Amino acid sequence: MAIEFNVFLGEHLIGTTSFEHADPTMGVVYGTINFLESSFNYDFWVNYCRQNSIELLANEPDDRLVSTANIDKLLAVNPNSGERLNPLSNQITGMDSDEFEITLMGIDSDQYERTFPEHMKEYEERFK
Question: Taking the model in full, what pTM does it have?
Answer without folding.
Answer: 0.94
